[in-house]
Design a protein that fits this description.
Number of domains: 1
CATH architecture: 3-Layer(aba) Sandwich
Helix content: 25-40%
Structural class: alpha/beta
Strand content: 15-25%
Number of strands: 8
Strand order of the largest sheet: 1-2-4-3-5-6-7-8
Radius of gyration: 19 Å
Shape: globular
Length: 261
């Protein structure tokens, strides 16, 4: 009977473990920001931390769902808010909002660092094992963290903007993070010229980097909301979505070791 009771208690304890999701209000230079912290309490102790940077419409359920997926893999996750509390624009206003930060990389980096600080100081984070990922506008953000020489193990850009602003390119031996770029081979918004420029930038800076191109994929290939018409320049691509996620997992496994129990 005692063995059965012990088994029931163990099963009950396991069943009680569940993803924990919290809204976090924080600030950068007086601007209120509203991020999202996600972790899985099935994992004990500190774990690698991953920062998630949103696409051009701001922090939405899309990034939160990706954060939940990462949490289930054993990461402590913080989804950043670059724009500010309550600023969640839709196109065409989204393009104007994103453009502010593309034109002001100093401000963009400050917002990124404010979010990274939230992740780093959290009690669940192993601060020696940090990474970042981003989608579209957020892919640019992940690359900005690398270019800034932030002490991360690795960053991943999913169908991101790849161009460096003048004076903000990666410096020789100044990048600490490994860089993985997962990109649509037919992306008209970050076309082949941007891809080649990024490769040259990373090579000149001595960065350990890799670019993976998905044939037939255009911009936003991980987002169902982009629809299925690639002629519009942005469309979901199921194969590229799954393959890119697996590539990210393998990348982080190589940096942090496997975390999934």
């Amino acid at each position: 009977m005692s063995k059965i009771l012990a088994c029931l208690l163990a099963c009950s304890s396991f069943a009680s473990a569940a993803p924990v999701e919290k809204t976090v209000i924080y600030e950068q230079d007086g601007t209120k920001l509203e991020g999202c912290h996600v972790y899985d309490d099935a994992f004990a102790g500190k774990r690698p931390g991953v920062l998630v940077v949103h696409q051009w419409t701001g922090l939405t359920n899309y990034e939160k769902e990706r954060s939940r997926m990462l949490a289930k893999l054993g990461y402590n996750v913080f989804a950043a808010d670059i724009y500010g509390q309550g600023i969640r624009p839709v196109p065409p206003a989204a393009g104007q909002e994103a453009g502010k930060y593309k034109a002001d990389r100093k401000l963009y980096r400050a917002r990124l660092m404010a979010a990274l600080e939230q992740l780093t100081k959290d009690e669940h984070t192993d601060a020696s094992k940090l990474g970042a990922i981003g989608y579209c506008f957020g892919g640019m953000g992940a690359l900005e963290l690398a270019r800034a020489g932030v002490d991360l193990k690795g960053v991943v850009s999913f169908h991101g903007s790849l161009d460096a602003a003048e004076g903000f390119a990666a410096a020789r031996n100044g990048v600490k993070a490994k860089v993985l770029v997962l990109h649509g081979a037919d992306d008209p918004f970050a076309p082949a010229a941007q891809v080649e420029a990024l490769k040259k930038e990373m090579e000149a800076a001595g960065v350990d980097s890799k670019v993976v191109l998905y044939p037939g994929a255009v911009h936003s290939f991980t987002q169902l909301a982009a629809g299925n018409d690639p002629s519009k320049g942005a469309a979901y691509n199921e194969e590229a979505d799954h393959e890119s996620w697996d590539a990210m997992r393998a990348f982080f496994d190589g940096l942090f070791g496997k975390t999934n129990p």
